[in-house]
C-alpha cells in the first residue's frame, strides 16, 4: 500500500496529510478487529507497510494513542487496544446519556435552523424506505444507523456533544455491524428510528427519550455475543 501524500506537517500544527491517511487506515483496521488485542505495532513494520519514513508513522501512532486506539509500551513500540466487555458497557452508558439528552433537546426546542429540519425529514425518508424493503448489507446499515444518531446530535447545535458521540461510535462500529446483521434487528431499528422522529416532531420529550432508550438498549444486549465473535475473527485472521 503506497500512500502518495506529502510527508510533512502543516504550518498550523495539524498532522500532515500522510499522517492522517495512516491514522485513517489503521483506525479502520482496528475498528474492524483486524488486529487482536495487544497486537504490537512497530514503526519499522508500519514504514514498510505504508512505504514511508518514520516521521509520519510516529505522528500517526501518537494520534492513535491520544484517541485511545493504541497504547504506548515502555521501549517496545505500541500495542493495539481493544476494549473489553466492561469498557464496551461503559461506552454504551455514556452513549445513552448523550442520546437521551439529544432527543430531549430536539423535542423541547426543535432543530435550530431550516437545514437541520431538512436533515430530519431526510432521515425519515431514508428509514421509511429501508423499512419498506430496501436491501442493505450489515456494514451499510451500521453506517446509516451511525449517521442517524449523529445527525440528531448535529441538529442540537452542540459541537462538543457531537464530537464525543462520534468518538464512541467509532469504537462501536463493529458491534453495530454484527447487531444489524440480524434481519429482525434491522427491521426493529427502522421502526424505532421512525418512532424517535415521530416523537421529536410531536415535541414529546418523554416519549422521544423512551423510544431512544429502547433503540440503544436492544443493541446493547447483543454486546456479549458481538465481542466473542469479534475476538474469534481477530485471532483467526492472525493465525
Layout of strands and helices, then pairs:
Layout lengths: L16 H15 L8 E2 L1 H8 L3 H13 L3 E3 L5 E3 L4 H25 L4 H18 L6 H18 L3 H21 L3 H19 L3 H16 L2 H15 L2
Antiparallel strand pairs: 1-3, 2-3
Helix pairs in contact: 1-3, 2-3, 4-6, 4-7, 4-8, 4-9, 5-6, 5-8, 6-7, 7-10, 8-9
Keywords for this structure?
239 residues
Task: Describe, in plain words, how this protein is organized in 3D.
Helix content is 70%, strand content 3%. With 239 residues, the chain is mainly alpha-helical. It has a 3-stranded antiparallel sheet with strand order 1-3-2. Strand 2 (70-72) and strand 3 (78-80) form a beta hairpin.
Distance between the termini: 22 Å
Reading side by side through the largest sheet, how are the strands ordered?
1-3-2
Rg is 20 Å
What number is the mean pLDDT? 86
Task: Please provide the ordered H/E string of secondary-structure elements.
Answer: HEHHEEHHHHHHH
**Beta-sheet strand percentage?**
under 5%
Helix content: over 70%
What is the number of helices? 10
Shape estimate = globular
Low-pLDDT stretches are: 1-14
Structural class: mainly alpha
Q: Count the E strands.
A: 3
Largest sheet: 3 strands, antiparallel
Amino acid at each position: 500500500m503506497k500512500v502518495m501524500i506529502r510527508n510533512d506537517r502543516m504550518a498550523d500544527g495539524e498532522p500532515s496529510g500522510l499522517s492522517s491517511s495512516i491514522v485513517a487506515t489503521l483506525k479502520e483496521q482496528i475498528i474492524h478487529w483486524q488486529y487482536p488485542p495487544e497486537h504490537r505495532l512497530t514503526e519499522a513494520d508500519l514504514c514498510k507497510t505504508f512505504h514511508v519514513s518514520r516521521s509520519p508513522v510516529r505522528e500517526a501512532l501518537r494520534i492513535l494513542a491520544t484517541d485511545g486506539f493504541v497504547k504506548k509500551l515502555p521501549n517496545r513500540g505500541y500495542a493495539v487496544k481493544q476494549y473489553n466487555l466492561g469498557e464496551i458497557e461503559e461506552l454504551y452508558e455514556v452513549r445513552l446519556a448523550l442520546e437521551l439528552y439529544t432527543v430531549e433537546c430536539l423535542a423541547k426546542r426543535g432543530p435550530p435552523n431550516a437545514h437541520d429540519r431538512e436533515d430530519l425529514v431526510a432521515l425519515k425518508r431514508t428509514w421509511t424506505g429501508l423499512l419498506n424493503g430496501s436491501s442493505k448489507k450489515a456494514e451499510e446499515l451500521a453506517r446509516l444507523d451511525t449517521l442517524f444518531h449523529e445527525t440528531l446530535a448535529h441538529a442540537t447545535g452542540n459541537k462538543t456533544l457531537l464530537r464525543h458521540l462520534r468518538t464512541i461510535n467509532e469504537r462501536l462500529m463493529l458491534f453495530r455491524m454484527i447487531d444489524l446483521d440480524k434481519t429482525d434487528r434491522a427491521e426493529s431499528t427502522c421502526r424505532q428510528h421512525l418512532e424517535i422522529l415521530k416523537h421529536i416532531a410531536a415535541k414529546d420529550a418523554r416519549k422521544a427519550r423512551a423510544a431512544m432508550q429502547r433503540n440503544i438498549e436492544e443493541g446493547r444486549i447483543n454486546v456479549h455475543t458481538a465481542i466473542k465473535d469479534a475476538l474469534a475473527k481477530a485471532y483467526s485472521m492472525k493465525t
